[in-house]
Amino acid sequence: MKHFLDIHSTDQADLQAMLDNAAAMKAARAGRPKGAADDEQPLAGRMVALIFEKPSTRTRVSFDVGVRQMGGQTMVLSGKDMQLGHGETIADTARVLSRYVDLIMLRTFDESVLYEMAEYASVPVINGLTDRTHPCQIMADMQTWREHRGDVTGKKVVWSGDGNNVCASMLHAAGQFGFNMTFTGPRQLDPEAEWIEYARSKGSTIEIERDPFKAVEGADLVVTDTWVSMHDSQSTKERRHNLLRYYQVNADLMKHAKEDALFMHCLPAHRGEEVTSEVMDGPQSVIFDEAENRLHAQKAVMRWCLEV
Ligand code: CP
Ligand code: NVA
What we know:
This protein has twelve helices and nine strands. It is α/β, with parallel strands linked by helices. It has two domains: about 5-135 and about 290-305, Aspartate/ornithine carbamoyltransferase (Rossmann fold, 3-Layer(aba) Sandwich), CATH 3.40.50; about 135-290, Rossmann fold (3-Layer(aba) Sandwich), CATH 3.40.50.1370. About 50% of the residues are buried. The model has no long low-confidence stretch (mean pLDDT about 95). Phosphoric acid mono(formamide)ester binds near residues 56 and 137. Phosphoric acid mono(formamide)ester binds near residues 57, 59, 266 and 267. Keywords: Cytoplasm, Transferase. This is Ornithine carbamoyltransferase. Reversibly catalyzes the transfer of the carbamoyl group from carbamoyl phosphate (CP) to the N(epsilon) atom of ornithine (ORN) to produce L-citrulline. One of its GO terms (molecular function) is ornithine carbamoyltransferase activity.
C-alpha cells in the first residue's frame, strides 16, 4: 500500500519522480481551462474521499480539481459531519471507507489519527496536514523552487517564525532533497528536535540562529508561516505575537538575504503580521506559484499512490 504520509518516510527517488511527473502534467495542460480534462485520464473510474477536520481553501480545491482533471470523482467530507466526529473509531471508519472509495485524503489534528487511518484502510491514505506535518505543501514548494531556480541541492533555506507543522515538513525535505536550513525564531517555538536530528542525519546542515538578520545572510529562500496555526489555541495569540514580532519577514529582512532570494509562504497569510504585503506582492515572492503547484504536485502524489 502506497500511503503518502510524510516526506521523510517516502522514498527519495519516488519524491523526485513525483516532481518530474508534476512538471510534465503542468506543462501538458498549459493554457487550458481549469475544468478541462487532461489528455491522460489515470483516475478514470476512481473515487477519492477528501476529509477535512480543519478548514481549508487550497488543499480542498486543489485536490478536488486535480482528481477531476485526471478523470476521477471526489467527495468532500467534513469530519464533524461524519460518525468519526461522534465516536465511531478511526479503524472502523477506515475499513468502511475502503469499501467505497479508492483513495483517502485526510486533514486532521493529531497525526495518530492519520496513521491509524492508514493502518486500517485497504486503500492509500494521503496526509492533507496534521498538527505536526504538511507534506503536500512542501512537495508544491519543491516544485516551485525547481521551476524558478532548478536544483535545490546545497541551497540555504531560512525559516523565520514558528517552527510548526509546515516547518517540520520543510526539515524533512531538507533531508530528502539535500538542502540546508536555518531556523530563526524564539526558543519556545523551535522545531521539534527529532526533525532537526533527522535532517542532520541525512547530511543537511541545520542551524538555529536567534537573530533573523544574521540568519538570512546568504539565504537562497526565505520562508514563513502564520503565527497562530489552526491547532494553536486562540488564547495563545497575544503571547505568540509578542514572541514572533521580531521575526516578521519584511523588505528590510529580505535585503539581508541573497539578492536573488525567493520568498515562500504556504498561505493563508496574515498580511502585516508574519510577512508584509510589500514582500508578499514583491518580485521575490512566489507564493501564488506555490499555491498553484499544490494542484500539480498532488496530482503526481495521487498517481504515485494509485500506481496509475
Ligand atoms: N496551504 C494550505 O494548506 O492551505 P489551506 O489551509 O487553504 O488548504
Ligand atoms: N501552520 C498552518 C498551515 C496552514 C496551511 C496551520 O496548521 O494552520
